[in-house]
Design goal:
This protein is mainly beta. It has helices at about 10-15, 45-50, and strands spanning about 1-5, 20-30, 35-40, 55, 70-80, 90-100, 105-110. The radius of gyration is 14 Å and the shape is globular.
Length: about 110
């Protein structure tokens, strides 16, 4: 079941109204394989959604070497999905773009465009 929201504030309203406990940030690698990082809902803030969620790209096979592994996930809060399965009903899912750090500036990867 999908729910579209128009802002970060609406995302938090929707999540609280539906008793969301976990937020799953989903993204694909360059091969097209799905990956995800899950946070407890109370660990997600408006600033982290706006500025991005840091993650280690070296943990994904053949993606980034350890010395260039600092990456960001930028979620699209305009599209929130909840699980149709009752045992995951307290999860919501956000699709993300990923960014590489280059010269201390975050650049969107060409694969996301």
């Amino acid at each position: 079941m999908g729910k579209f929201v128009n802002s970060i504030e609406e995302f938090f309203e929707y999540s609280k109204a539906n008793e969301v406990n976990f937020v799953d940030f989903r993204f694909t690698d360059m091969k097209g394989m799905w990956h995800h990082v899950t946070y407890k809902f109370n660990a997600v803030s408006a600033s982290s959604l706006e500025n991005g969620m840091p993650f280690d790209g070296s943990s994904i096979e053949a993606w980034q070497p350890i010395h260039r592994s600092d990456m960001l996930l930028k979620p699209d809060v305009n599209c929130v999905f909840r699980s149709i399965y009752s045992w995951f009903n307290n999860h919501c899912y956000l699709w993300c773009l990923w960014y590489l750090q280059k010269w201390n500036v975050w650049k969107m990867s060409k694969i996301n465009r």
